[in-house]
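One example given next:
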Amino acid sequence: MIRRPPRSTQSRSSAASDVYKRQLYIGTKGSSWLSAKNWLSGNHPCLSNHTWYGIECGGDATNNSVTGVRLAANNLAEGTIPTQGGFLSKLSSAFDVGSNLVDGTLPSELGAFRKLVGSFDVRSNRFDGALPTELAELASLCLELKFADLRNI
């Protein structure tokens, strides 16, 4: 039996981010998005000539990671935000899925966006339930909830 060395934390984090982005695409009917350039292409979303639509990247050539998700008004539909959202640990500029048709509850795992100092925009969707208390821990966050249609708060 050949034993492989354990994957580094960076590799696991990158793989988890890729899984999350694929779940976001599939879970919100990515095939009907207005723009989905390079999503599910099999390439890392931050490769210079294969950048995925709506994904912002930062870092150097060896540690290029997702720093923003901007998919506002892109026809994300009838799905929920995946609960593995906390794996995007380097997200810092934005998480914007506003003006779409995403439904369900906002997952508490989104509170893991500890480095997010930009906007968290979920307005004009069909979310229900309470806002996760974990979002209160994101002290530097500009929360965009106008017309978020959060029922049962």
Notes: Residues 3-11 have pLDDT under 50 and may be disordered. The first helix runs from residue 9 to 27. Strands lie at 55-58, 65-70, 94-96, 103-104, 119-121, 126-127, 142-144.
